[in-house]
Amino acid sequence: MHPTRRTVLATSAAAATLTALPLTQGQARATPSKPAPYRWRNAVIGGTGFVTGVVFHPAVRGLAYSRTDIGGAYRWDDRKACWTPLTDHLGWDDWNLLGVEAIAIDPAHPNRVYLALGTYTQPWAGNGAILRSEDRGTTWTRTDLTVKLGANEDGRGTGERLLVDPRNSDTLWLGTRHDGLLRSTDRGATWTPAPFPASPSPTGQGVTLLVAAGRTLYAGWGDSDGTAPTLYRTVNGTDWEPVPGTPTGTAAKVPVRAAYDRHTRELYVTYANAPGPNGQSDGAVHKLATSTGTWTDVTPARPGGTTPDGSADTFGYGGVAVDARRPGTAVVSTNNRWAAVDTLYRTTDGGRTWTSLKETAEFDVSETPFLKWGGTEPKFGWWIQAVALDPFDSRHVVYGTGATLYGTRDLRHWAPEIRGLEETAVVQLISPPVGEAHLLSGLGDIGVMYHERLTRSPSRGMASNPVFGSSTGLSQAAAKPAYVVRSGWGDHGNGAYSLDGGRSWNPFAAQPAIAKDAPGPIAANADGSVLLWSFARDGAKHPTYRSVDNGTTWSEVTSFPKGARPVADPADPTRFYAFDFDAGTVLASTDSGLSFTARASGLPSGDVQFQLVAAPGRSGDLWLSTKTGGLFRSTDGGATFTKIASCWASHTLGFGKAAPGAAYPAVYMVGSVETGTAVYRSDDEAKTWVRINDDRHQWGWTGTVITGDPRVYGRVYLGTNGRGIQYGEPPR
Fold first, then answer.
1. How far is CA 307 from CA 98, 310, 339, 341, 704, in A?
2. Which of these is catalytic: 93, 445, 569, 572?
3. Which of 405, 552, 621, 667 has the smallest number of Cβ neighbours within 10 A?
């Protein structure tokens, strides 16, 4: 899914011939240089991903941390009322560490913070790591683990699996999914397995939470069958035992989160029949009086009823937080409650009675209009497993969803508290040559955006008519930029066109039957008179279709390679191109996409990351970006290709306004030119490169999409897999 990577600078002129041969000893190599000074910022959308945890520091007002499933960790800046990213320094080789499994703070040492990192536990992903900081995440020391963590897997919204031992700040505990419990006695520098009575995890949930209740530590176990213990404790920091009387049954199979009320000495535990965030249909809330060992069922509402329209009201329980200032006051969240919509329940009497906060909630999403989901009023949210209560303000509650972080200061009025946190997975970017917007984006989960300003969330929100979940294609007619088309996963159509540069949209009047199940990339020719739409899903490749009447009718293009992405010539409306990566062959059409014939062959093939890109304003000027073979260029419409000697690997390529005095557009690339992978710009047609990001701005995996601004020299837009849209500019 995500490749391995490396970086640095560039060199000599284009060399070689048609095929992707490795560089020979006689070819020139680049000399590394310092990065060019660039200022990097997020193009603001606001959240857009799953906030899986929020932790307030109990001793410092306004100090809090948040974690995400693929977009790193953040620290709250109370003075600026925004989140500061803490893990942008993680580079290409460390892409798997942008998922944050857990956060731990040290109550006795406010400047200390710890992160457990690791996105996937699959064999193709690297091991996890621990980051530890003595300055609230400004700088980090790293320890690589010998086990894998799964911040973007099932159970990613369960409790913090990392804990500072309240007896001794030098001791930390880490609960893993497959490898039991680990302990460190040197503040996270080294880790060893700790004896733990539960069996190795068969499902990959393992330890779901760690929490301190006074000097006693509790660990949740997510692999019970409903009869085995789900909660363990240690009194002496060495020996772990099952907690007597733990709840059993389907509703209490997985302990999701826990919070301790130090005033009443009670531990609240939320349960579900699955780890979530999806798949939960039953759940409960129980509390343990730690001084007596007595369990009490305090579930606010039982799953399993019906809604007024007859739908089954199934759900689990997710987040839980207690009020540090008011004994017996706690908040819990439902999760995966699609029919009746999720809510927060609040109690002020230890769980004897609860009040749902949903019914009186008023939302203001003016700062992030996409949360209106195509014009509908925002609801309470979904995937609510992260809930936190400010220890210095009893009415300040925050909760994470699959798209944002909501907060209130009066338990009634809610608004996103998400400023500075951007977690979008970016799949397409277009920078129009004219018009109000300098950027259009195609995104995972939240469709297409029209960015009239880069410093504010798009005022139109998600492109509607129809609304897409994830975008799969975005294309602008080069000679008619008011015409834009898009494709994606939608419930009411999978393709649409715009006649005003992407401000408003209309669905295609018809679509091929396969579009509903496998919407893929789409391309408009230079004048917008012809569309080509490709279809593929889960490795299955389907025929490509053509329309000459703005999506009213479609016909199959039998000669187009199945699964390939159509590329329009930016100057000649009769030309399209495609790269068949199975065969390593470029194909071209000179009859407006009616038929395609093979041109250059012998190019990198097989399971390779690639992009075929047409240089703006020129006919037949094609660049082929490949991970394993490097960079190739054709100036004859794909008949022949020349290998670019200055590039060792190219992951994504784009173009922007030419440098002053230059005749050719600036070329932007995420790739390798000698010793590593970075973001580069070339002002001389890829003869030489200059690195334009730096070690503080790397964002993990950045190999999906990059484009320059055709109106502003030096400005580049970069898509990340979890840190949103980054844009960089040189000092002006």
1. 39, 5, 7, 10, 42
2. 445
3. 552
Question: Across residues 386-399, what is the average pLDDT?
Answer: 98
Q: Residues 238-272: pLDDT tens digits?
A: 999 999 999 999 999 999 999 999 999 999 999 99
Active site residue 282: no
Beta bridge partners of 716: 708, 728
Radius of gyration of the chain (CA): 27
Adjacent-strand bridge partners of 331: 321, 346
Q: Are 579 and 601 in contact (CB under 8 A)?
A: no
User: Could you confirm whether 77 is annotated as catalytic?
Assistant: no
| Domain residue limits, the chain | 46-416, 424-729
Whether pLDDT at 690 is above 90: yes
Place of tokens 């007597």: 244
Backbone angles phi, psi at 371, to 5 degrees: -70, -5
Dihedrals φ, ψ of 337, to 5°?
-100, 85
> CATH assignment of 424-729?
2.130.10.10
Q: Are 156 and 103 in contact (CB under 8 A)?
A: no
Distance CA 374, CA 614 (A): 33
Question: Strands 266-272 and 254-261: what pairing?
Answer: antiparallel
**Residue-wise pLDDT tens digits, 40-49:** 999 999 999 9
How does 664-684 read in b/e, with b if 16+ C-beta sit within 10 Å? Answer: bbbbbbbbbbbebbbbbbbbe
Would strands 216-221 and 207-213 be described as parallel, antiparallel, or unpaired?
antiparallel
Model pLDDT, residue 25: 27
